[in-house]
Amino acid sequence: MIRKNKERWTAENIPDLSGKIIIITGANSGLGYEITRVLASKKPHIVMACRNLEKADKAKSEILKENPKASLEIMQIDLSKQSSVKEFVKEFIRKHDKLDILFNNAGVMFAPKVTTEDGFELHMAANHFGHFALTGLLMNFLEKTENSRVVSIASMGHRFGKINFKNLNSEKGRYNKLSAYSNSKIASLYFGYELNRRLEEKGSQVLSIVAHPGWTRTNLQTAGGAIDESKGQIRFWNFMNIFFSQTVDMGVLPQLRAAFDPDAKGGEYYSPEKFLHLKGYPIVKPSNKRSRNEKIGKQFWEVSEELTGVKYNL
Question: pTM for the full model?
Fold first, then answer.
């Protein structure tokens, strides 16, 4: 059953967050930057988990100009490398003793074929395996923090995705950027839903919720083309953004509602309300039937634990 949405949910609904500790992956640009900027005025301590420290420093400085009292901390993480994820968690544990919200926000889109040092295809490595390991390694902190949540980011692209267990990292056949990205996004849904099922079975108070930002005007669409200097791809997405995208302040609302709406429930999926769910205010709306297949979700979870070596105590 779809839960009814009584009102348009905006950033104004976010309460005071004093004393909260929040991790935002990819906080230096796009949706991650906007989430950080919006939350900075709500008084939490925000860990900006970023790969590029130079860009992170610049982003932090820009936010502090707007909100000089913001509590921001930069920590380096490369989600495409399992070793970097583990180092990040070690450092976080050394500095902090709890975690209220984990935004699994960072990601790559339409990148050329790259195999990471762990043997993973880049989209699957950064968009899924990195966040899978990060969440698992931080689970003890989430469980001991009251009302904690894990918010994972999905995409309308999940509708074109499919998990092929015999070709999980695009080792076989011709490589396709769209397929690789879409596969990693349905992976995010399998992860978010299966995590919530396991949390509920354990009786945990942690909520796992997934959000889709719609078609949001950020650098994500063009970043993949920049990797292999595909000027045609960059021009195409810049042109399409003119007609179909919404502003980033609207694009972050599904993630923010998933994190801070007191009525949100584990296992829900938030997406924009209008125009094929590409634009508008966030509502609860089911993802496609394939992404909610519990058998595949369970199998993919087990494969993810095996490939990352991260075992959840659930």
Answer: 0.90
